[in-house]
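REQUEST ID: PR-0412
SUBMITTED BY: lab tech R.K.
PRIORITY: routine
TASK: structure prediction, single protein chain
INPUT:
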Amino acid sequence: MQKHFKLVLLVILLFSGVYSANAQLTDLARLEYSYIPKNNSEDSFDRVRFALNYPIKIKEDSYLLIGGDYSRITLNLEDRYPFPTSNLRRLHILDFNLGYTFKVSENWRLGAKITPRLASTLRHEISGDDLFLNGGVYAIHDKTKDKSIKKPYRLILGLTYNSTTGIPLPLPFVSYYRRVNEKWSYNLGVPKTNLKYFINEQNIIQTFVGIDGYFANTQERFSIDGKEADSVSLSIILAGLGYEYCFTDHLVWYAYTGYTLSMNNRLRDENREDVFKLDNVNAFYLRTGIKFKI
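STATUS: complete
OUTPUT:
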């Protein structure tokens, strides 16, 4: 049963958004805090995130998954800007997950998900500009439980659609995981690539490269140099080190620290064109939390 649940959550939680750095995890519940202070600036960014998902068995090897993912983002814009910043202080992103997965052969499983999203400052009544629709379809070839091979692996292929990116086409998704031996494993893919070293099954360290960020409607348009801004976004590429401590097989505390390799923080107009670039100087990155996984 645990094997089936792992496959379920891997499919459905795989890609909740282009910038969701945690989306490849098989989590039932997660509480997380992220922080980025700006170099040479009083500005900072922090995010509190909570996710909860529940699989429901429909029939043998077929599951429905329902759940949600909420993030409260705080933008501390203390520098001087040519526009009012109070409207941007709090951003709210809420995803509703609905997915379905089923087995098609001994080693292959298919899955699909749809994720309505609310992403807004929520200072006024919710409108159509605050709502977005994301989703994806996936195929998983899983050999992680095959005792006959020395290096277990998992390959995930898919197509994803995220309306907040401004790209009106499905995007390909590829992720490859391999456990090399008792001490090492690696994962190649997006939104996260990592190399893990197992001190033991309770203590794990890793190096990683990943992407993170957000997109939200401001609800209040404001003019900057004759251009109208109505949304705010952040996209970052980051690298660093991570540590995981497994209290049990299912309950894990983790912490990641690193540095942003690229940061694009900007205000955009209704066509997703740049209106104003905020402080984009690379900075320190911290993320920590606790998760319950199958």
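NOTES: Residues 1-25 have pLDDT under 50 and may be disordered.
REVIEWED BY: pending
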